[in-house]
Amino acid sequence: MSFTTSVKEEILNLDTADKNELSAIIKMSGNLGLTQQGLTLSIITENAKIARHIYALLEQFYQIGPEIKYHQKTNLRKNRIYTVFLEQHVDKILSDLQLSDAFFGIETGIQKKILSDDDAGRSYLRGAFLSAGSIRDPESGKYQLEIFSVYLDHAQDLVQLMQKFMLDAKVIEHKHGAVTYLQKAEDIMDFLIVIGSMDAMLAFEKIKIMRETRNDVNRANNAETANIARTVSASMRTINNIIKIRDSVGLESLPLELQQIAQIRVANPDFSIQQIADSLETPLTKSGVNHRLRKINKIAEEL
């Protein structure tokens, strides 16, 4: 099951349905038709549970049992397309939900009362996400929530509505519509809280924390590996210089304090600076060891 599907199934199990949710669903997934008997309404979805949810909402609020039809997609995915079809009292439903415009179409923007009322806004966002929302799987590490709108003004109203809840929403226009989106993990988690999908929010947060922990561990390991590589490189350079001194003028030409450092370095190429310091007869700091190793390197370079 995709992350988007799990969020939608959680929403469907909430006991929070109201007319504002239905309004968003009809506006974003509904199509009007006209017959001799009057207006018809077709609400389209690829999710059977959402189709049953729409049926339940219409039955609950308007005591109407619509027809549910389906057909198979012809593409390789072969998904079913479900249509909740209504041919009675469509004009009354549109009027009650304040969705119809002067030309017997569906208003493209969001009502001001929904934009100004927090509870209505939450319900509307639930319906909008059920209809046309998606969330990229947080395991991918690239966070994105999108809601597709056919009309740009509706997408812009969704931005305004999300911003009411302190979400950094943006909109981008496409050839066939517009997308309202969130890209920050914190905004996506806050959106899930707004629409009441707490289980999904906790799952999202858990995945995010685990990814960040893994990244921190990887960064620490990479840093440690880099430090080891630098230490080994410096050690080999110094050992090569000590061999150069030994083969050219002999180690006995070095001052006694440098001879002891040189012997320990050659005998223990994997020793850290601290381990070299600990191996000296006379205790010395790491800084002191480094200073003497630099002296050895300088002597070798001058040969």
TrEMBL record:
Residue ranges occupied by any Sporulation regulator WhiA C-terminal domain in the UniProt entry: 217-300
Sporulation transcription regulator WhiA N-terminal domain boundaries: 17-99
Keyword list, A-Z: Cell cycle, Cell division, DNA-binding
Family to which the UniProt record says this protein belongs: Belongs to the WhiA family.
Domain of life: Bacteria
InterPro entries linked to this entry: Homing_endonucl (IPR027434), Sporu_reg_WhiA_N_dom (IPR018478), Sporulation_regulator_WhiA (IPR003802), Sporulation_regulator_WhiA_C (IPR023054), WhiA_LAGLIDADG_dom (IPR039518)
Keyword ATP-binding belongs to the record: no
Residues that span the membrane, as ranges: none
Protein name: Probable cell division protein WhiA
WhiA LAGLIDADG-like domain sequence ranges: 122-214
